[in-house]
Amino acid sequence: MRYAFGELVSDIAKPFVVGILIAGVITFFFPEDLTVWANDHRFVSMLVMLAAGIPMYVCATASTPIAAALILKGLNPGAALVFLLAGPATNAATINLVRTIFNTRTLVIYLSMIAVTSLAMGIGVDAVYDLMGIRASAVVGQAAEIVPVWIQIPAAVVLAVLMVYTSWKQSTGCASTVCSSECSE
């Protein structure tokens, strides 16, 4: 329980809030006609998301709301998946670490495999959506209808309180699972 409602919440709070903020900016500022371009240039949109995701320092927690916002704006689900796979797997720090510890050849193989796998999975996801006749922008956000609003609101409040509480505990130096007596007061 301490891990689930303490350390885990503390670990995901900042990237989650950053991801939500970036998703809000994307939703507000990105053009509505992204659908036309993304559907006409599916593979190119995957390459763009690959190029954006590789150097970006984004974890899975932050990249999920970003990808959802892009799909809402009309990005094909395959391109969003490429971003979801390549972004957290690679970033400037990881690239530098792999090159330093191993060598440039290993780095090229590492990045190539992530790129090829991400693109293949993106193409596969787009094929499944086409085969099933599903428009991704029509189904994104529909899961909220499964859970009633009277559960959504209290759950959001509890999550916000937990994130603020764990952030406060971390800032006061009581973030570890075993706190001293002065921290538990």
Automatic annotation (TrEMBL):
Coiled coil: none annotated. InterPro entries: DUF318, UPF0718. One of its GO terms (cellular component) is plasma membrane. The keyword Transcription does not apply. Keywords: Cell membrane, Membrane, Transmembrane, Transmembrane helix. It is found in: Cell membrane. It is a multi-pass membrane protein. It comes from the Bacteria. Signal peptide: none annotated. Its main location: membrane. The chain crosses the membrane at residues 12-31, 43-72, 78-98, 107-129, 149-168. PANTHER family: UPF0718 PROTEIN YCGR. Belongs to the UPF0718 family. This is Putative permease DUF318. The lineage of its organism: Bacteria, Pseudomonadati, Thermodesulfobacteriota, Desulfobacteria, Desulfobacterales.
